Amino acid sequence: MKRNAKTPSETSVEMRELVMPNHTNPQNTVFGGTVMSWIDIAAAMVAARHCGRPVVTAHIDDIDFIAPIKMGYHVLIQASLNYVGKTSMVIGVKVTSENPYTGECRTTTKAYLTFVALDDLGRPVVVPELTLQSEDEFRRFENAKKRVAMKKEFRGSLRSK
Asked: What is the pTM of this model?
């Protein structure tokens, strides 16, 4: 029996934001830190929905700022669970901006975040397994599995002998 397995679609999150003046830098584009905050919030919601527990961000991996987002644009943040370990979850997040006057959309940011589920004492706790259904879900799972393995290998290579 799987540990109360869930599918990525059961826990995915979509958020929308409007880029306001307080979100922007002197170039009238959104601060990277603001986008990172939105990404972290969306990913945390996915992780919490998956495990039904409090979660914390353990690692932010490979955040790519692809294009700027202008003041007044609409922002779509899509987050989905890609991989689960014993106590951790890897969530992929894609950020898209939309010009509200022309309807033009473009991908602006992509990131992968690892969250850990916590018990009532703040210690890591086992999370439900992931049930994959589509080719895309299997591809994302395998890619995240490789990312996790590479991160472990890299960390191991940094340890002094």
From this structure: 0.91
Number of domains into which the chain is organized:
1
What pLDDT does 86 receive? 93
CA distances, 146 to each of 83, 132, 138, 153 (Å): 10, 17, 12, 10
Residues of the chain scoring pLDDT < 70: 1-3, 160-161
The whole-angstrom separation of Cα 149 and Cα 29 is 35
CATH of the domain at 32: 3.10.129.10
β-strand partners of 86: none
Give the domain range for residue 63: 8-158
Burial (CB count within 10 angstroms: exposed 0-12, middle 13-18, buried 19+), residue 68: middle
The structure tokens listed for 58 are: 């353990």
102: left (phi over 0), alpha (psi -120 to 50) or beta: alpha
Give 60's contacts (C-beta < 8 A, 6+ positions apart). 36, 40, 111, 112, 113, 114
DSSP symbol at 83: E
